[in-house]
Write a structure and sequence with these properties.
The chain has 199 residues and is mainly beta. It has 4 helices and 10 strands, in the order H-H-H-E-E-H-E-E-E-E-E-E-E-E.
């Protein structure tokens, strides 16, 4: 395992055990008289519409289609991950965040084939090769998208950019979306710059 993989290892919750894998049909038939379980299934969207048709040769369970940076009063900085070279652009062309600015990241994605359990976002930020921090955010569990809901959008917890002369500069990050089964659905490197003002 590389040091980058070690950095992105998901923090485990003591005593948590991933449940047995089930198909969508098995979930729908499971304990139909259990009111709490039925509310949980409804929260996942199970049985709430016609499942989107997907290419059977595309075995991915989760497809991250876009990432965005939201800042109140400004247009979102959106990276369309369905375009060619999008991940390379994230790595080589940093975007600017004004020092001290409050921001929030947002992911748009689709789930196909099976229920996605315990999707998490893990991020490690470095500056000049020195690890500054690791963040992990639970995004939740999702059923395959339906015609009524072709995409999911998840907003992350608000964050604040560092400020001050020493905080200004270029930062490198490695991020991944991973689920309870430890399947990495997207892993990427990206770069951002903390500056005195927006560019």
């Amino acid at each position: 395992m590389s040091s980058q993989d070690d950095d992105l290892a998901v923090d485990k919750t003591e005593g948590f055990k991933v449940g047995e894998k089930k198909t969508i049909e098995e979930y729908q038939k499971l304990d139909q008289d259990d009111e709490a379980l039925n509310r949980w299934k409804a929260s996942l969207g199970l049985g709430s519409g016609k499942v989107l048709l997907v290419d059977p040769s595309d075995k991915r369970r989760c497809v991250i289609t876009a990432l965005a940076l939201e800042v109140e009063g400004r247009d979102d900085i959106v990276v369309d991950l369905t375009t060619p070279n999008a991940l390379e652009t994230l790595k080589t062309k940093p975007f600017t965040i004004k020092e001290g600015a409050e921001f929030r990241m947002k992911a748009t994605f689709k789930v196909q084939h099976d229920v996605l359990s315990g999707l998490k976002y893990v991020q490690v930020v470095k500056r000049k090769g020195i690890k500054l921090g690791k963040d992990q955010e639970m995004l939740g569990s999702y059923s395959p998208n339906t015609e009524d809901k072709p995409l999911y959008e998840k907003k992350f917890a608000p964050d604040e950019a560092p400020k001050g002369m020493l905080a200004r500069g270029t930062y490198n990050a490695v991020s991944q979306f991973i689920d309870d089964d430890e399947v990495a659905h997207l892993k990427f490197e990206w770069t951002f710059e903390i500056a005195k003002d927006w560019k």
